[in-house]
User: Fold these one by one.
Assistant:
Number 1:
Amino acid sequence: MTTLAVVLAALGACGYAVGARMQHSAVRAEMGDGGLKVRSQVQLLRNPLWLLGLAALGSGALLHATALGLAPLSVVQPVGVLALPITVLLSARQQGLRTRELNINVVLAVLAATGGVGAFVFLAAGSATSTPVLPDEQLLATQLVAGAVLALGVFGLLTRSKVRCMAYAAGCAVAYGLVSVLVRALVQQLGSTPLLEINPLPLVAIVAAMAVGGWLLQHGYASGPPELVVACLTVIDPLVAVGLGIGLLGEADAVGSATAAGEVLCAVIACAGVFALARHHPETQDREVQATAADDGDAGVRRIRSDGSST
């Protein structure tokens, strides 16, 4: 069963990567030069490529959930981070690049993010203890995540380029991290409560978090490369889910200091990999060059006008 679970999780990661690549291309094609406006978002619902990407993402999620039912979390969850290198390879192929032609800094950043989050989830899953998710804890987690998502969304509006992409993708990842906690709460209710007596609030919160996260995800695609979006998702999502488990549910009460230090180190390495990817990715560097050139051009026009030699 474990071998089958790993295979299913790997196929799920492929679904995530292919879906991200398709939706990114569809978003860029629809938004044009005016950004991702409401009209563009509505048109995405009729875009075949975007819908195929959505189907790929849904298939990946279903395969990953099935794998979790066949093997321990510590075996299945790290496999999901394969979506990041797969996305990098898909983008390289679309650009006509060979594997050996990839930027070495991008490769190192992907390895750091992938390895860091994989080791983090492995340590957390191997040392944490299962605890019930009480209604008060669900409400507090929802409030904390809502505040964080709102802050990241506003920050994304006030920034541009790779910073905006990371802010929107991080907001999506935080929302999806809450979904993991709420799904667990819902499953616990299904196992101990009659169907008609189940509290519907976790399900409502799950739908809302998925909708808000999906909206932020599309804006992340509109602001930067798909690799950066996938990197934020695969790193921040499990960190948030585990962080909520540790901080609110007391899952780390029996974790030793050495294991806790290892988890912190892995999280730092994974986040450093995301920032390095944002810094060294060719697309974000090209955008910075274009922005700098545009700013220099505007400054030159202003200088000419102030001299009175041109209107």
Number 2:
Amino acid sequence: MKNLVVYYSRSGNTETIAQEISKEVNGDIKKIELIKDISFAGAAFKALLGLKGKIKSIDFNVKNYDNIFIGSPVWASKSSIPINTFLSNVDFTDKNVFVFITQADDKTPYPVYESVAERVESKGGKVIDSYFIQTDMKSPLTSTQAARHISDWINKNRTYL
């Protein structure tokens, strides 16, 4: 099985998780980036409204992968605008999708999972599992901290990988 880890990260926490997932599943890793960065307040406002942002060109094709891991921070109780754009532009037909979320508060972001899953499934994908980790923007996760969390989640889903 071929694995792809796709993510957006503003503070570095989602990126650290993505890197650990990529190591665990021996997957390719791709960062989604905005063409023009926006302020934290602007990002939260646009996310709250469910808006998309202009992202840099995607230099990969999800058709080349069996499993797609999608990572996003939570902004204003919503997925980030770069991930919104990615989800709207990709065909997930026959793909197993795993969603991982980072968030600064301790509330499990079920509405974010549900929103991402709905968009993936409307494009032909199947969301297998989701994962949430509480983070701190002032003190980003280390790879050691992330690895402890990710290893169990990946092992739980090993039959798909």
Number 3:
Amino acid sequence: MHSTTSSNLKIKILHIALKLFLGFMLISGGMDKFKKPIPAPNKMIEQVKAGEEVAPNTEVLMIKNFFFGLKQSNYFWQFLGFAELLAGALVLSQIFWMIGAFIALPITLNIFLFHLFLETDETGELLMTMAMLLINIWFIISSYEKWKGIVIDKSAVQFKATAQ
């Protein structure tokens, strides 16, 4: 019995540590969206028109184009930052962590895919973002029993015999 209690305690501590890691990573990424002055939506277009070099190679150009697209809308970059801050704060709250994990899932998936397809040479960042995604998926899977009632409507699959 003692080893089971000790094992459960270790799992709880690990779960909290992973929440702290994911929450702080999301908050850090969200804050970064607001730190630097956001360039005008047409800055890259103006650079190209002026004949200025936008990127030293194709890989960097692809990354710059990706971020340019997010920033060009003049709202999405900030919206993404807000979503990261919200998800991170909810995960860190230890009370609303499941909601935070669901909000964070498309964000962590996109961050991982960005590094997988656009920054393939950055192995450390790829592994870090893969860890974030896997932790996020683990949170959702491990809490399945708690949230399944929200998304699975058992009454929709029950057939009632009608009286004749």
Number 4:
Amino acid sequence: MEHREETTTLISGEKVSGTNVYNTAGDSLGEVHDVMIDKMSGRVAYAVMSFGGFLGMGQKYHPLPWSSLTYDADRGGYVVNLSREQLEGAPVFAEDDQPRWNREYEQGIHDYYGVAPYWGGALPR
């Protein structure tokens, strides 16, 4: 059986890495560095976007709720409704300072972006 990286509705995680992320104004914000998948449901929970840095040094990573991204075929990348200023204040981590990825941390990500958590929790009022 031949391995396919992409169909009209599916894409391999390997091919998602490196895909550009834009805001709705068309500004390039970064690129998908990795995806985080919920072990139990198999659902993609987050796109980890790389932002900043030079030649891989000083790179920062922003976990974006997968539900906040929309694929734009014309741009060949994902679009989020964020400005650069919003992104600069968003949850971020460095490669040598990985987050704990517990529900408290994840809830903070969803609260910041105003997106319902992938595990079905409600946003605070």
